[in-house]
Amino acid sequence: MKNPPSFPAILLALSLSLLLVLAPTPAKAWAGNRPVLSALVKGKAKIIGWNGYIQGAEPGRVLEVGEIIETDESASALLTYPDGSRALLGPGTRFEVKAKIEGVETNELTKGSVRGIIKKTDRKNIRHHYLFRNRAAVMGVRGTDFVMSFDGVKSDTRVLEGLVEVAGDENSLARGAGAPVKGGEWLASSPELDTPSTSVQTFDPNLYSRELDGRSMSPETYGLDPNHPFDGDPESWGITRIQETRWARFRIASSYLFQKNTVGWNYTGEVSWNPQVRVLNRLGLVGQLTVFPLRLGEPRRWVLCRRAGLGARLSLNSVIAGEAGGGIENWDRYTNEGPFAFANLILGASNPRSPVRALVLGMSYYNRKGAVPDPTVVYRVGLEF
Fold first, then answer.
1. Residue of 226, 282, 214 lying closest to 58 (CA atoms)
2. Which strand (E) or helix (H) includes residue 5?
3. DSSP sequence for 123-158
4. pLDDT tens for residues 149-190?
5. How does pLDDT run across 280-319, given as a tens digit for each residue?
6. pLDDT over 70 for what percent of the chain?
7. What stretch of H or E contains 166?
8. Quick one: how far is CA 250 from the chain centroid?
9. From CA 181, how far away is CA 161, in angstroms rounded?
């Protein structure tokens, strides 16, 4: 029987397809649609996850939905959003990244201060494309330079340039009942006090800017041009691609199966559900539930095969992630002694901004029992959504 192509040969043949999937996207797009911790000044910060995990915050860290970044009393941090907008977190700040819904970035300030240098949007169908809120107020932004502070009871909003709207809740803001606050004005809010426009007061932006310098909340703190704060992304952008928790991770793959001296080779297709839970910074656990048809026996007959497995997923860099794990398979009547074990190795190259999330290459190896005793190798190529 003619020898099947080797796994390295298959990888080489697919390299051009890999480049077509990935090449058009600029490097900074690998952060997907999530903000990145671009810089950390002086002290330390930590990330608190939705499931309670705590880890040290390092530049290059992608902040996923529901994660909280908390700076200590001497640290300040710079977050950069996909459109180039920035959030400068002051010392002693706790800031949560919320979901982006219909193009609107939503964030919550639990305590401390955040300075938003928000890039203007050209979209005409939305009133605000950024929301910043705390327990006392919610602010809608289209493009401006502002500072929001919250001490647990009172909220203070100051605008250095541009215009924002402040209301007590999202519903009031959506119907246009918020108080407009423009450059050189500030507004205090609390849960017990509504925020009518008559409560807006003025302040000296120059004096306040010097105060922000002392709190490490100015663009110069991070080496940015104060006149062009959207330019000059720090070199740390996209260094680390943190694999997010994803329950809806599906793969559609074609497989090439080679069985030594027994059934020879065969082609098949696979549909797989691969939920993933992030455990640590770059490391996650990924499950595998797969079904696929296969022709076996003499004469050949179609059977429905099932596979279940568990593995570890490691983010190697901003593009490539690898998986390794094992599990069991069942080939119906051709599995005489029950399910048999396998080990697999999977390599994925991802483009989060594409509907096709990744091109996946994989290989599995196992010894079969019962009717099909010889070692088997399965090569896979597929797409992940």
1. 282
2. none
3. -SS-S-SEEEE-SS-EEEESS-EEEEEE-SS-EEEE
4. 999 888 999 999 999 999 988 888 888 888 899 999 999 887
5. 657 889 999 999 888 776 677 788 889 999 999 887 765 6
6. 76
7. strand 163-167
8. 17
9. 10
Report the amino acid identity of residue 301. Answer: R
Question: In Å, what is the CA distance from 156 to each residue of 92, 109, 124, 195, 204?
Answer: 16, 12, 29, 11, 15
Nearest residue to 47 (alpha-carbon basis) of 16, 2, 11, 89:
89
Q: How far apart are CA 303 and CA 207, in angstroms?
A: 76
| Main-chain phi, psi angles of 49, to 5 degrees | -90, 170
pTM: 0.56
Domains identified in the chain and CATH numbers = 7-12+244-384 (2.40.160), 35-222 (2.60.120.1440)
Distance set, CA 290 to CA 58, 129, 244, 272, 329 (Å): 36, 40, 22, 4, 9
Q: Report residue 180 as tokens.
A: 């407009």
